[in-house]
């Protein structure tokens, strides 16, 4: 163990597990993909544990693809838009076999249903395990209208995970405070890198910038263009952005949407000049995203689920001001009225007021864009972030050495935690079964109704509320 600690500051063998890697599109995917790349650039050996069958979308900028192992996963009926890892015997065998062969000095995992497996296997094989919490499970459960007891079980599982791991981190100070309120033990806030060589204001020239703006505004390049980038799902509250376009005074504002996700088809149906919405869902490379940021007048989001907000950092690096809710994560990445605006969460009128400020003051737009760019260049370089992770891994290895003096305490925690995770998984399976039964019953009722009603008796969807309809 002491030998491992001494080697950690030079070059390391790091196993990295993430529940989100390309072709998934979300902040966790971007963050963990960047981490893998920077570790490889720094000369570290990497083993990837993933839920994806292949990692063809992982852009390593010419570096050879490291070995990766695919784990079992599925899409629960209660939350079909998100892939969930399966804490199965098969996954236990795959993880243990891969780690035994690779023999990493540290394992870094994103915290999810497999965390207890990683903690137990790491204890058995003598591998220090560091975990990072990226997803706000509490708000997801509340958005699904889960029972309060189920939410508290989720809290207990996160708290158990954070204590069984040798180290546990999250992505922002505001979310760290929230997790500590939920009984978690957090010892570090990780930095998030932005490739400023890709995301910068000069990634597009004046002619191409005007062409992009003309395409996204249906031939009105001088209109005010706001850009949303991210996962297209219900919890992102994209309906607030649509409602903002309907506020008086926003008649010359166009919304461009870039990303993909469960409600992509419903949002794509809103694509039209009449709605002032450009939406062609799909995966975009970082280079293409950078051009969209640089060509837009502002980056907007209405999500209150963010634990950091990667897209904010990308937009700032590209010189675009940001307008996002005053909520966890965003509070750490945006300095109000300096490099962006923080509007009242859920309020399209509050959002429209800040859009109007930027629209009426080009000087303010340029100042905010430059302030964001300078901040990212000083604090969020890829090299600084990789160094931060390696130092955290060093501390994780040392902490494992200290904790091994009380192995019975770790074993006791595992014995308490395992019933919790299996109870939670059984509850989730039962809930999925009930949801499936309900969907089948509704299908039968709809079929019977179709037989009794005329074919044209359907109720048309309100075109102004596609997300709510979805």
The largest beta-sheet arranges its strands as 3-2-1-6-7-8-9
Query: How many DSSP E strands?
Result: 15
Rg calc: 23 Å
Q: What is the number of helical segments per DSSP (H or I, 4+ residues)?
A: 18
Overall structural class, as computed from helix and strand content, comes to: alpha/beta
Instruction: Let me know the CATH homologous superfamily of the largest domain.
Output: Glycogen Phosphorylase B
Shape: globular
Briefly say what this structure is:
This protein has helices at 2-7, 27-41, 89-102, 115-125, 137-143, 148-164, 173-181, 206-216, 239-245, 264-268, 286-295, 310-317, 330-333, 348-360, 362-379, 382-403, 407-452, 466-469, and strands spanning 13-18, 45-50, 68-70, 73-74, 84-85, 106-110, 129-133, 167-170, 188-189, 224-229, 253-258, 277-279, 298-300, 322-325, 340-343. 48% of the residues lie in helices and 13% in strands.
Describe the protein's architecture and organization:
It contains 18 helices and 15 strands. The strands form three sheets. The chain has a seven-stranded parallel sheet, sandwiched between helices. It has helices at 2-7, 27-41, 89-102, 115-125, 137-143, 148-164, 173-181, 206-216, 239-245, 264-268, 286-295, 310-317, 330-333, 348-360, 362-379, 382-403, 407-452, 466-469, and strands at residues 13-18, 45-50, 68-70, 73-74, 84-85, 106-110, 129-133, 167-170, 188-189, 224-229, 253-258, 277-279, 298-300, 322-325, 340-343. Helix 4 packs antiparallel against helix 17 and helix 8 packs across helix 11 (286-295). The termini are far apart. It is of the alpha/beta class and 470 residues long.
